């Protein structure tokens, strides 16, 4: 299997730095994409963020400690009415102000959950969520590998097409020189020379069209791997390799990332259901506080004035919450969670059918491509023999120029058909490798 791509990095960086030429295999190009493409970067960030989500949920199981402080100034203290008998003044009502002008309070509070079923379920869900993002990251990488491989093969096919046109142009140019010599010797007509000149001009136009198309495909490849568009790439001159043994591989759905992802989603939905069911369970937590209260007629903070009085306080307690009746809301949420699980099971079955279909289609495409490739290779050899014989006959006056031009056109078409069938094979090969869950092999080979 051809897996090499020569990349010439020769763009100017920071004004004066020239990239040296690098020879990259397809595996290295894919690795470049996995490191630099936006999709891969975002997927890694999601995976990193999943760990932070676990930390957030885990924090709920740890003691929650808070500190608080208040400072209050009462410029006008509220007075309360007391009967005079209490103070030895019967028959009078005495107004007395309670409290102090200044009051401060510093408190340290601790809360610790002892039993909370929803918290325990949340911890399991957080770990499963990270596993989900790990699989999702694998799926993102596989999708990127598939896109890069297809883009690479399209550039390669376009390059082969350009080489075919160039070979045809070289042969036609040689024929032009031969006919030109024959015209000068009076052995050929001027119209034959004009016809071959027109054919050369048409080939030059086709060549430019393919060059433009190839440039667009090269830009698509560079974008697919996250490479600077201004950098040049150069492909090797080998041809596609074909491996018919790949048809012996069987579909393995259990290894498909899409299936693993749906299975992990099922686990998450099941944990979501358990989290809702946890609403039926009681919860128990511990609470404690410790603080100081300062009161006086002067500013109480950092004051050494004996008029400020300080008093400490503390408290310990248990909080028990027992759900009794909420109108059936919890039961309704559980039923909704069951529906989501059943819907995902339907998606799982449909996904497996689609993956099996893709596997069989890829095998059928490879079978057809192998037959087409063999036929086109024979056709290329035959067209080359016809062209060689026609060129020889034309030089000896046994064939017309029209027959020669037709032979050249037929040879070029045979080569293009072969290149197209090879591209179709490689695309189908990628799909078959994908259907077996082995796209990462394109990186590790």
TrEMBL record:
Record keywords: Cell outer membrane, Membrane, Signal, Transmembrane, Transmembrane beta strand, Transport
Family matches, as InterPro entries: OMP_efflux, TolC-like
Subcellular location(s) of the protein: Cell outer membrane
Highest taxon listed in the record's lineage: Bacteria
A GO molecular function held by the record: efflux transmembrane transporter activity
UniProt signal peptide: 1-20
Main location: membrane
Family under the similarity heading: Belongs to the outer membrane factor (OMF) (TC 1.B.17) family.
Official protein name in the record: TolC family protein
Organism, scientific name: Sphingobacterium alkalisoli
Lineage: Bacteria, Pseudomonadati, Bacteroidota, Sphingobacteriia, Sphingobacteriales
